[in-house]
Predict the 3D structure of the following.
Amino acid sequence: METFGCRANAITPFFLLLLLLQSILLSSTAQQLPPSETRVLYRIQKLLEYPEPLQSWNNWTNFCYLPASPALTVLCSSDGHLTDLTIRGNKTSPSRLPNPIPKNKTFFALSGKFSLDSLFTDLTKLPNLKTLSLVSLGLWGHLPSKINRFASLQVFNLSSNFITGEIPPSIGSLKTLTSLVLADNLINGTVPGDIKMLVSLQELNLGGNNLRSEFPSATILKALIHLQRLNLSRNKLMGPIPPALFSLPSIQSVDLSDNNLNGALSVNTSCGSQLRFVDLSSNLLVGNLPSCISASAIASWNCLSGGKPKQHPYSFCHKEALAVKPPTNKGKKQGSSSSSIRLGLILGIIGGAVGLSFLIGLVIFVMVRRSDAKELVPEHRFAPSLADKMSVRSSVHTFESRRVPKTMRSAAIGLPPYHIFSLEEIEDATNNFDPLNFIGESTQGQLYKGCLVDGSEVLVKSVKLKHKNLPQNLMQHIEVLSKLRHLHLVSVLGHCIVTFQDHPTSVATLFVIFEHITNGSLHDYLTDRRKKEVLKWPQRMAITMGVARGIHFLHTGVAPGIFGNDVKMENVLLDESLTAKLSNYTLPLPSKVGTESPLRGQDLPNLNSTENSDKEDVYQLGMIVLQLITGKRIKSSEEVEELKAQLEKGLAEGQSKLRDMADSTTKGTYAYESLRTAAEITINCLSKEPNSRPSIEDVLWNLQYSSQVQDGWNSSGNLNTSQM
């Protein structure tokens, strides 16, 4: 019996081991993709020219067990089929294309061998795919009609690529689609009427393309009963906005900014109960806004009535609307037959040479951009000045507004035209650099306050450059510099280039002229007891929104984007109306600038150095909002973590705890929901991991919601005016 017992004890572990191995093998094989789907993934890796997120794939890769990351997510169903494929590359996009364009076009687009049609031929062989997201991968070409083969697709995201042509009508076959994002491409034509077939659609984002048609009709919009978020901004859409859009039962967010939309909306237009965000800015709208959005919509730079701030005169919108009026139907009918024949012939030719046409288009684009840069700041010699044996290169030429993107023009309204100053003008403004006008000094630069002949106050900053900086090498930097004009920036008004008299081809000094904000900084207001009383919660929300919009403009309003902007309370200036303006942001100047210069330099293009620096700006914005919520000054990273932990605790423990955290100065002036939303986005901004922080677009969306909640609370008579 004893022997038998010993054998039993020896056999039992052996069988247990076998069972364990069997279970491991079964579980792993259950999650193995079929060979056909595995082959598709390897082919996609090759077609995409081995982008960084896919470089580790090899014959031993078990795709169903790949760890998810922001750059790559592969998910499988329980029965071992691919359901989710998300790939985010590191190529730039049309909105962030640097100037001049790099000679190596693979910096932003895949090579001439790439075929978007071939890519989708393979992708459609994944029958269970529910999420397909291919972002910033340099895809180019026309979107093929075979996308209708995705029978189960729910999320379709091809944003930040170089996709051209029209959206194919076959898009309407994707009955299960809930999210369609084609933003930041080069898509033209119309919003296809077949969109109305997407009855499950919750998000439609076609922003940042070249759509030039009439706005989608009410018939199309009314079919999208589940639509929550609509973004058609930064296109060339025209015509009136159907009132039915705002009354869709599920609609929450509408962004139609930067188009050519015209006409008037009925003041009696009804709005859906969930509508929280509306941006109609920079269009050609007239009349009054519907009462349901009048108080909260962003509607600047239209021609609206009713005392709306920052509006053009009515004549501006009438004139511009005539300029963008589409051709009449009569003209279309007369030439329809011959046009069809010509169109068929042209399409046949294009179909046979699509790759060649793309390459030719790129060459033309490069030539146009370079020619614009040359024409933008022509050089004219002036007579030598009296200052340090220097001569001046300057010009009375000002930048033509038609060369500046619409978003740049609209944000800069209220500023004088960009001006190229002569040294004599700089000397006059500063009274020959009078010591009384001196503000600060470093080893290679000085800062003076000045007054122009029209009486406006300015700041003059000097950047001393090394001899090897040729004026023509500065032009690409000057072009970006000239676009730094925005409501929420201390804007650049102009510049002056000074050369050595004995080396007339070498730049000695660059003077940069800024608007002068004299009302103090946000730091001044929060540390001065009497000034702090002015900053109730509505004012703090407006300041926060202003800072966020300033950062958003620096990141996306110029190309390449400007990051790492030293966003702190001392650099947030407030004008007389408490409008926030970012100062001391990074300027796009050559690295030849000395380290002690009052202007920090940034090479162009230098996108690689911006890794996580956009999220650093988001973190610093979070620090500002944290101080605005609590009223406490932060002097160290330890204090940031301590206050953040207290804020998280306040959110977790309920209203009374969070209210206790809020600055007592704001008591009775905030809606709790507005405060809570601001606190939540602040905590996210202050995440230790940069990749876990939200984008500045997400921050803006949440802050806008917080602001709209606050506006609704104010208008309902809740605001304690005795606290104001």
Notes: The chain has 19 helices and 27 strands. The domain at 522-590+599-724 is CATH 1.10.510.10 (Transferase(Phosphotransferase); domain 1).
